[in-house]
Amino acid sequence: MAENGQPTTEVKLDEFIKLFVNHRPVYGIGQNNIEEAFAALCSYDGDPKKIRRDTLKKMLMEEGEAIKPDEMSLLLSRLTGKSEIEDALLPEITA
Question: How high is the mean pLDDT in each 10-residue block of the chain (95 residues)?
Answer without folding.
Answer: 72 72 67 81 84 90 88 90 91 85
